[in-house]
């Protein structure tokens, strides 16, 4: 991706956004569906799998370690697993592309298998911290080796040698990270005895839900605000039929677009609203957003609704930091909403945003300022003085730094600018939301002249 010529993107809206759209499947659930199906004995089927580059990296890695994974023409996926303990030695390095989730969760799986795997990634992923999984997985017995001469021993490329049998641990998460939690639980799957993770702050619980769904023995206790998750190892997973709900993180882009383009009225169908993921919608509603949840239902054991969204006058907000884990990937698009709201927004407790695909605090601050927003960057977040619904100047080119959420956030911001914003490279969008541009066009957004290259 980093070697291809950059493909700029410019979106604009000359009329209200209208219509009904469906966002692709949830990225977090899609990764886990492939991994657990690949460890079950027999054939699992997955509907609604996100066919984004990050998830395809997980599929390729699971194939390289022995699973048979096929997509049928109707978009359903079938996976024949190898059984817990049955992962095979991959014959080449596992290329994780841009995907932190694939890397950290798969390191967990490899940690307790008789496998040596080298993990590589793109320029963005190769800067992201892996110490957070190296620490607990080393305690379980895995060995991590950086390339000879590497400046940093905690970034990709890294070679991981699993240990069989691995050692069960009790691990208190030092950062609120579902990826670290999941890495330890997945390592625990093939580890004798009970592996325990203590979560001081709840994070997305898709791993717990799905591990149980596949038949693993997993308990969750709540004590003094903490969650204690225990998994009994050497589990046998039974194949499942999984229906993946739409991704609430992806839905954030059309939702905010409809809120900020005057007169808009749209429906985003089939959006997953697991409480550990739905913080954005809670915060937007508290800002005055007109969002109604229609046809609330359960899909694949996860709460889902159709979101009806009408353009709204938004007020600035200071969300409680406890909401952060439930919307950690949605802050870039929330910053855009805040830049157009009435009054000041104080968004803090966001230090984790600095270690995502880009430093999302710094990159959003720079881009928002370039398009005319009043933004102050602080160590753990942004303070934004909104325009009160006035359009931003726009006109600038913003750098995406191989970060899909930055690209989509500024493509949406462009809809509320006097002159369109040029997003320097649209390619990263394919990691999580390959149909983002046609979907926005379907709602009435347009490519500006000369920007369809
Ligand atoms: O477990 C997951 O699927 C994810 C967890 C979050 O990362 P952290 O665990 O690093 O916060 C999130 O940012 C990422 O997009 C997906
Ligand atoms: C942080 C993200 O993903 P990952 O960590 O899997 O790269 C994201 O999708 O915003």
UniProtKB/TrEMBL annotation:
3-phosphoshikimate binds at residues 27-28, 32, 177, 179, 329, 356. Keywords: Amino-acid biosynthesis, Aromatic amino acid biosynthesis, Cytoplasm, Transferase. The active site is at 329 (proton acceptor). InterPro entries: Enolpyruvate_Tfrase_dom (IPR001986), Enolpyruvate_Tfrase_sf (IPR036968), EPSP_synthase (IPR006264), EPSP_synthase_CS (IPR023193), RNA3'P_cycl/enolpyr_Trfase_a/b (IPR013792). Its EC number is 2.5.1.19. Pathway: Metabolic intermediate biosynthesis; chorismate biosynthesis; chorismate from D-erythrose 4-phosphate and phosphoenolpyruvate: step 6/7. Coiled coil: none annotated. Residues 14-438 form the Enolpyruvate transferase domain. It catalyses: 3-phosphoshikimate + phosphoenolpyruvate = 5-O-(1-carboxyvinyl)-3-phosphoshikimate + phosphate. Phosphoenolpyruvate binds at residues 27, 100, 128, 179, 360, 405. PROSITE patterns: EPSP_SYNTHASE_1 (PS00104), EPSP_SYNTHASE_2 (PS00885). The keyword Aminoacyl-tRNA synthetase does not apply. Its main location: cytoplasm. GO terms for molecular function: 3-phosphoshikimate 1-carboxyvinyltransferase activity. Belongs to the EPSP synthase family. Catalyzes the transfer of the enolpyruvyl moiety of phosphoenolpyruvate (PEP) to the 5-hydroxyl of shikimate-3-phosphate (S3P) to produce enolpyruvyl shikimate-3-phosphate and inorganic phosphate. PANTHER family: AROM/DEHYDROQUINATE SYNTHASE (PTHR21090), PENTAFUNCTIONAL AROM POLYPEPTIDE (PTHR21090:SF5). NCBIfam families: aroA. Monomer. This is 3-phosphoshikimate 1-carboxyvinyltransferase. It comes from Sphingomonas abietis.
């Amino acid at each position: 991706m980093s070697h291809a010529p950059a493909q700029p993107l410019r979106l604009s809206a000359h009329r209200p956004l209208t219509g009904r759209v469906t966002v692709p499947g949830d990225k977090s659930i899609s990764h886990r569906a492939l991994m657990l199906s690949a460890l079950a004995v027999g054939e699992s089927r997955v509907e609604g799998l996100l066919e984004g580059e990050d998830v395809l990296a997980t599929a390729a890695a699971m194939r390289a370690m022995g699973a048979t994974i096929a997509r049928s023409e109707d978009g359903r996926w079938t996976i024949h697993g190898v059984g817990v303990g049955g992962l095979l030695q991959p014959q080449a390095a596992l290329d994780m592309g841009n995907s932190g989730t694939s890397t950290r969760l798969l390191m967990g799986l490899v940690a307790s298998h008789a496998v040596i795997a080298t993990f590589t990634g793109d320029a963005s992923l190769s800067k992201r911290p892996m110490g957070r999984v190296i620490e607990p997985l080393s305690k379980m017995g895995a060995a991590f080796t950086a390339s000879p001469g590497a400046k940093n021993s905690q970034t990709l490329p890294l070679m991981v040698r699993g240990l069989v049998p691995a050692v069960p641990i009790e691990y208190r998460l030092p950062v609120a990270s579902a990826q670290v939690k999941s890495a330890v639980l997945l390592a625990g799957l093939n580890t004798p005895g009970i592996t325990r993770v203590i979560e001081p702050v709840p994070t997305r619980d898709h791993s717990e839900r799905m591990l149980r769904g596949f038949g693993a023995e997993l308990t969750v206790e709540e004590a003094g605000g903490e969650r204690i998750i225990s998994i009994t190892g050497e589990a046998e997973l039974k194949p499942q039929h999984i229906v993946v709900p739409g991704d609430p993180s992806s839905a954030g882009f059309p939702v905010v677009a409809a809120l900020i383009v005057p007169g808009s009225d749209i429906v985003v169908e089939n959006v997953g609203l697991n409480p550990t993921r739905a913080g954005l919608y809670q915060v937007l509603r508290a800002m005055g957003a007109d969002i109604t949840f229609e046809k609330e239902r359960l899909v694949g054991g996860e709460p889902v609704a159709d979101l009806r969204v009408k353009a709204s006058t938004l007020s600035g907000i200071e969300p409680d930091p406890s909401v952060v884990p439930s919307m950690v990937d949605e802050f870039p698009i929330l910053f855009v909403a805040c830049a157009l709201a009435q009054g000041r927004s104080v968004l803090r407790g966001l230090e984790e945003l600095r270690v995502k695909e880009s430093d999302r605090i710094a990159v959003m601050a720079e881009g928002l300022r370039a398009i005319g927003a009043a933004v102050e960057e602080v160590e753990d977040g942004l303070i934004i003085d909104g325009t009160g619904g006035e359009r931003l100047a726009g006109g600038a080119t913003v750098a995406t730094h191989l970060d899909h959420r930055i690209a989509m956030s500024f493509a949406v911001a462009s809809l509320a600018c006097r002159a369109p914003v040029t997003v320097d490279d649209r390619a990263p969008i394919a990691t999580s939301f390959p149909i983002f541009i046609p979907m926005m066009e379907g709602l009435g957004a347009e490519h500006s002249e000369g920007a369809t290259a």
